[in-house]
Design goal:
Blueprint: H1 19-27, E1 44-48, E2 51-54, E3 59-62, H2 65-68, H3 77-87, H4 101-113, E4 118-124, H5 127-144, E5 152-156, H6 165-169, E6 189-191, H7 204-217, E7 221-226, E8 230-231, E9 237-238, H8 241-254, E10 257-261, E11 285-288, E12 300-305, H9 306-314, H10 330-345, H11 348-363, E13 372-378, E14 381-386, H12 392-401, E15 404-405, E16 412-415, H13 423-438
Parallel strand pairs: 3-15, 5-6, 5-7, 7-10, 10-11
Antiparallel strand pairs: 1-2, 2-3, 4-12, 8-9, 11-12, 13-14, 14-16
């Protein structure tokens, strides 16, 4: 396929004629959607490179990397081969009392590339679950330390950590997606979203609220959990690495663990392998997922220090109390190993820097539009923040008509493309963003 050519936008058959979409409308409930939603759904037949081929033959350039995880694109020969090799041995075995080479090698590799001090890896199935595990790990650690009262958490406003009960309790309770469930969630503490922008220092005043919370409640706090440098689904904002560095120092001062949620930022997306590296800090616990398998299979991991894992293991009940059924799935571990290998041997820094520059250039003219509040770019993340929320049925159809797959939410139109995207494909994406917004097809 010549990926430098624009995607096909020829007239397609009516979506109403598709038996897949007809059955989908009758039986399938999509994420963050209503069964009576007017937001269109599009049936994908295949995917290769950075392009999705719809059942009706149209091709779309994917600007979302399948919710930020398909960093190598689709139908990647090396990743396909990794799964096929493993499939010939075993698709799955239970991880309780058994182990296998793909899981062991993956854990070794994660320890090797992660911030210093993270030595123990607990595998799971999804990002939300990895956050639940991190929270349970922190609580059980303090219980083993003889401080069972340390069961609460601090997180940041505009933060998002997942959709399960524990993860919801540390996601923004007002501007987030979970206000409906407030009554059943554990009561935690929230510091203001950092106002110091990425690349700028963080003043004492800008971190004072976090310091006050830690000072006032450290006796009941198990951990501070945050997304390093990039707040993802809660607002796509980029904050000062100096804030993160000072937050780590405050956690050490007040005896509170630091959990870094690197599910969205891990594996190069922010311009570093892990966003913590921007601040030169090592968290006590770190969650990874999404890009871990290059978007091929669901897999996540929670890493922690030996201090945490050994302390938990040395005290009753002498085990960490969690155990996913599909923990350490051999297929997922095998493809994750190959994905990390592809990333580390593929000059990913150069790719991300190129994407960053093209996003800066390509989205710049959006600043002139009356409906645009801000344009910001960091690494392979480009964000156009509007003054008002988009009209999803209208804007989603407009992007597909333009030959691109972009999935806005709220006031945000953003791009997180696969790292293999070409300059021409990036130009088509950024042109589509400008044209759709300029034509008012977001209202």
């Amino acid at each position: 396929m010549n990926t430098s050519q624009p995607p096909s936008t020829s007239q397609a058959p009516s979506e109403a004629d598709s038996p897949i979409l007809d059955s989908d409308r009758r039986h399938v409930w999509h994420p963050y959607s209503s069964t009576r939603s007017e937001v269109p759904v599009f049936a994908v037949k295949s995917a290769s490179g950075v392009r999705l081929t719809l059942e009706d033959g149209r091709q779309l350039i994917d600007g979302m990397a399948s919710w930020w995880c398909a960093i190598h694109g689709y139908n990647v020969p090396e990743l396909n081969a990794a799964i096929n090799r493993q499939l010939g041995n075993m698709a799955h075995i239970m991880f309780g009392g058994l182990t296998h080479a793909p899981a062991v090698e993956l854990c070794e590799k994660l320890v090797e590339i992660s911030p210093e001090g993270l030595q123990t890896v607990f595998l799971s199935d999804s990002g939300s679950v990895s956050v639940e595990i991190a929270m349970k790990m922190a609580v059980q650690y303090w219980h083993a330390e003889g401080k069972p009262g340390k069961q609460q958490f601090i997180s940041l406003r505009k933060g998002y950590h997942g959709d399960t009960i524990g993860a919801m309790s540390v996601s923004d309770p007002e501007t987030g997606m979970h206000s409906l469930f407030t009554g059943i969630l554990a009561k935690n503490f929230f510091a203001p979203s950092p106002e110091c922008a990425f690349g700028e220092p963080c003043s004492e005043e800008q971190i004072a609220d976090l310091k006050t919370l830690l000072q006032s409640h450290h006796q009941t706090l198990a951990a501070l959990i945050l997304e390093p440098v990039v707040q993802g689904a809660g607002g796509m904002s980029f904050y000062s690495a100096d804030y993160l560095k000072q937050a780590k120092a405050l956690c050490e001062q007040y005896g509170v663990l630091l959990i870094a949620d690197e599910i969205a930022t891990g594996f190069g997306r922010s311009g570093r392998i892990f966003a913590c590296e921007h601040a030169g800090i090592s968290p006590d616990i770190m969650c990874v997922g999404k890009s871990l398998t290059g978007g091929y299979m669901t897999l996540a991991a929670t890493l922690c220090t030996k201090q945490i894992s050994d302390t938990v293991s040395d005290q009753p009940p002498f085990a960490f109390m969690h155990g996913p059924t599909f923990m350490g799935n051999p297929l997922a571990c095998s493809v994750a190993l190959e994905s990390i290998h592809l990333l580390l041997t593929g000059d990913w820094q150069k790719k991300v820097r190129r994407i960053e520059q093209r996003l800066i250039t390509g989205l710049e003219r959006c600043r002139q539009l009356d409906d645009v509040a801000e344009v910001r770019v960091l690494g392979a993340i480009g964000v156009v923040e509007l003054k008002q929320a988009v009209n999803m049925p209208v804007i989603q159809q407009a992007f597909v008509d333009a030959g691109v797959w972009i999935r806005p939410f709220g006031k945000l139109v953003y791009l997180m493309p696969p790292f293999i995207i070409t300059d021409d494909e990036l130009k088509l994406l950024t042109n589509a963003v400008f044209d759709v917004l300029n034509d008012g097809k977001h209202r």
